[in-house]
Amino acid sequence: MSILFQIPNKELGTRLTHYGWFCGVVPVFLGDLEGEAPLVVERNGISEWVLSLAGALFRVFVKVAAVVAPDRDIQIPLVVTGPITPLPGGDR
Predict the structure, then answer these.
(1) Terminal C-alpha separation, the chain
(2) How many CA atoms lie within 13 A of 67 on its CB side?
(3) What are phi and psi of 71, to 5 degrees?
(4) What's the predicted TM-score (pTM) here?
(5) With contact defined as beta carbons under 8 Å apart, do 12 and 29 qualify?
(6) What confidence tens digit (pLDDT) does each residue in 23-49 have?
(7) From CA 79, how far away is CA 84, in angstroms rounded?
(8) Which phi and psi (to 5°) does residue 68 adopt?
(9) CA distance 37 to 30
(10) Is 77 within 8 Å of 24 (Cβ atoms)?
């Protein structure tokens, strides 16, 4: 999505409010952090399949970890690195 159809600047800082990483390898934009399910979108210049591949590998890890340690609570690895602040003039 973010190579051919980049995230519009008007959504950065409004709908998507933070920079972050998924699994420590995929740079993402994050939104609705206080909600039940945060909005996660790959950053501009990153292909959508990269986020899909990381998500699939994480699901495999969760299935294996559930067999090995069923009493553990595994959470989605999202790291918030900072807020998106709009630049003067609205350009990025």
Answers:
(1) 19
(2) 5
(3) -85, -5
(4) 0.79
(5) yes
(6) 999 999 999 999 888 899 999 888 889
(7) 14
(8) -75, -45
(9) 11
(10) yes
Largest distance between two CA atoms of the chain: 53
- Cite the DSSP H helix spans in 1-92: 48-68
The pLDDT tens digits for 44-87 are: 888 889 999 999 999 999 999 999 999 988 888 999 999 998 76
Which of 3, 28, 8 has the alpha carbon at shortest distance from 82?
Answer: 28
CB-count exposure of residue 48 (10 Å: 0-12, 13-18, 19+): middle
Q: Domain coordinates of the chain in residue numbers?
A: 9-83
And the tokens for 28? 């993402």
- Whether residue 25 contacts residue 39, with contact meaning beta carbons closer than 8 Å, is answered with no
pLDDT at 61: 94
Q: Token pair of 66, please?
A: 């559930």
Residue 56 to residue 51: CA distance in whole angstroms: 9
